[in-house]
Amino acid sequence: MADTALSGVPHTINSIQTSYMAQVQRKRLYGGLTLLIFAMLMVSGFVVADDRNAGGFWEGLHQIGDYPADVLSEAWEKRAELPALVVKYFPALVETINIAAVSTLFGAAGGLVLSLLGTRGLAKWPRLIPLFRRISDVMRAVPEIVIALVLIFVLGGGPVPAMIAIAIHTAGALAKMFSEVAENADLKAIEGLASTGATWSQRMVLGVFPQVAPNYVSYALLRFEINIRASAILGFVGAGGLGYELRNAMAWGPGRFDEAAAIFILLFGTIVVFDQVSSRYRNRLTEGQGQ
Asked: Cβ of 219: how many Cβ atoms within 10 Å?
């Protein structure tokens, strides 16, 4: 009996190995087909986009450095005027930072509410969790520039449409991040508060916020960095700020390229500074939480 059982072991091992190799080959085949389809879609998409362009990509590729060269040459010729231009456009930079800061505050507040209402184990109305999650999905799925264009058509140009557009997108994005953090919160403190008769808001403030606050602030700071760039981009569609001034300087063409260079310097310097400061604070928050 024992010999018979042992004699069947090699056969079983061989069948398992054969089955495993067949699965590996099948997975490789599917992976190769997926990669081939992706490559074909990329090539076909590029061909379609190239046909619809005003000029061919390959025909204009050699001119890709002409515009930066013109901007840099004119800025170098008028380099003595750059400090004055930086001072001139500094108020527009302040407006861009204000748009990003206010939209981040409102977006973080909206994302906080949506995250708590859409997190399992914490939601006040568990049956409405899918509804609040779909709302946050829609808010972050629509790009800021699309929302801004609609609001500019309704409200007119200026910083207010940009602020609302960025705040809506920020609320949807942070709701997703905040919800993932809140799902990992320890429920023992919340259950203890519930046993004492605490309301839902009291359980959230006293039981959840102390656990998730460092990560929430870290994500909000990261989103603030992104919103500075977004507010500058929205200026190109008439939403004010530094992006609006940059669009005007670029559209004017030669003769105002020095102004475009000064705006680029302001924007680049601001993004670098806020990235460094925000990264330092975010590292402190996460390290402090780990300790």
From this structure: 22
Could you read off the pLDDT of 175-218 as tens digits, one per residue? Answer: 999 988 888 888 888 888 888 888 888 888 888 888 888 888 88
- Please report, for residues 44, 112, 214, 245, the alpha-carbon distance to residue 109 in angstroms, rounded to integers and kept in the order given: 43, 5, 15, 30
* Distance of alpha carbon 25 from alpha carbon 29, whole angstroms: 6
The domain total for the chain is 2
Report helix, strand and coil shares of the chain as percent, to nearest 5.
85, 0, 15
Q: Is 278 found in the same domain as 176?
A: yes
Model confidence, pTM: 0.75
12 contact partners, CB below 8 Å, separation of at least 6:
none
Q: How far apart (Å, rounded) are the C-alpha atoms in residues 269 and 16?
A: 61
Cβ neighbours of residue 233 under 8 Å, at least 6 residues apart?
Answer: 144, 145, 243
Range of the domain at 15: 2-60
Same domain, 108 and 133: yes
Output the CA–CA distances (angstroms, integers) from residue 230 to 246, 248, 283, in the order listed.
14, 18, 23
Q: Give the number of other CB atoms < 10 A from CB of residue 125.
A: 10
48 & 159 share domain? no
pLDDT, one tens digit per residue, over 71-121 is: 778 777 877 888 888 888 888 888 889 999 999 999 999 999 999 888 887
> Would you say 264 and 270 are in contact if contact means Cβ atoms under 8 Å apart?
no
Residue 96: name the closest of 245, 261, 259 by CA: 245
